[in-house]
Design a protein that fits this description.
Elements: E1 4-11, H1 15-24, E2 35-43, E3 61-63, H2 66-70, E4 77-80, H3 87-96, E5 100-103, H4 111-123, E6 129-131, H5 139-150, E7 156-164, H6 181-184, H7 189-203, E8 210-216, E9 221-223, E10 229-231, E11 237-246, E12 249-258, E13 267-274, E14 278-282, E15 288-297, E16 301-310, H8 329-344, H9 357-376, E17 380-381
Parallel strand pairs: 1-2, 1-4, 2-3, 4-5, 5-6, 7-12
Antiparallel strand pairs: 7-13, 8-11, 8-17, 9-10, 11-12, 13-14, 14-15, 15-16
Helix pairs in contact: 1-8, 3-4, 4-9, 7-9
Bound molecules: nicotinamide-adenine-dinucleotide.
Length: 382
Amino acid sequence: MTVREVNVAIIGAGLMGREVAAAIQRWPALVDHPVRPRLTAVCDIDVRAMDWFDRIESVTTKTTDYADLLADPAVDVVYVAVRHDLHERIYTDVIRAGKGLLAEKPFGIDVVAAEAIVDAMDEHPESFVRCSSEMPFFPGAQMAIDYVRSGALGRIVEARSSFLHSSDVDVRKPIGWKRQRAYCGEAGVMNDLGMHAWHVPLRLGWEPRSVYGVLQDIVSTRPDAHGAPAVCDTWDNAVLHCTAVHDGVEFPLTTETKRIAPGEKNTWVFEAIGLDGGVRFSSKNPKQVEIFATVDVPGTGVEQVWQRIDSGSQSVWPTVTGANFEFGFSDSILQMWAVYLAERDGALQMRFGAATPGEAVLTHRIFRAAIDSHEAGRAVDV
Ligand SMILES: NC(=O)c1ccc[n+]([C@@H]2O[C@H](COP(=O)([O-])OP(=O)(O)OC[C@H]3O[C@@H](n4cnc5c(N)ncnc54)[C@H](O)[C@@H]3O)[C@@H](O)[C@H]2O)c1
């Protein structure tokens, strides 16, 4: 098998820039992948943020101006992880330079920005673009998706998809760009966490017809760098009560994105219930999948049972990891990169792919409808 080398550059050497750089170093764990990425370059306006990358031998370029990376013919693919207000400009520049782009969510600060990015893609079809969303690559999430696709739910009753954080329960936590509308966007927590909650529902075809948004701005000031109170004007929590359709049947779909969910640390939850079956997965118990069934219990008779399965380590792209071992966040990042580079190479086949630009635009339309709904106090069509 011929393996094609792909040179990767990172713009934004913060939390996610480092996470992705580390995940790519585990590439040999993937079995028979057609592509071998090499992280060769990194860019950040803060020189100190790039110091960490000295530990990665293949990184030979460090720059504070991303134009240097875009002008380098040796760079094939760019991962961009910066503030939301910078997405449109940097993503469109990457696309117009003809590079592949794995773009961080929410894919532009709002729907106008997301559509401008898609317009640039239309002008440059040579640039293969996908949006970051790694949680569906947990094996338990994949099992839940396959369960729904199998038809095992029967007539659907309801579904829930949530992404829950507790990082903002501490009101003394400094403000930061993610808590300011100008940098994070009007959609607030939905811009931050919404793609996590919507990737799977949209992939299952559950595009909502209407949205009733319940949004909360719970903490209105936070300390700035000097400890003085600064305005914190983003939505902290958003619950969206939606109407979607599965197998021709309308059903209530609820998505939750919360920064203030006490006790939850990056918890991704997916649950779908039908008359014939049900499935639940939460990254809180990362190897446990629950399946609903009616079971003939010896000595008792027919009972309704939630059964538990340990999902093991294998996700969309096979790895050398023992099938019974555990899977974690950094594995999900590796899987997302495996499918991104495989799809760019034309080798994804029927596997579950990374979130598409079309799905990202749709999330922004849903967030807009949720804000309008919250303001009007009624459900709004998407
Ligand atoms: N997929 C996930 O699970 C996940 C998790 C966290 C954040 N994110 C997303 O990743 C993106 C970045 O978030 P983060 O938490 O890594 O942010 P961060 O603040 O930790 O890092 C952003 C970095 O970008 C740098 N930067 C700013 N302007 C720049 C420019 N013009 N050129 C180059 N670098 C520049 C900053 O100096 C900083 O080091 C956001 O879109 C966020 O929503 C995704």
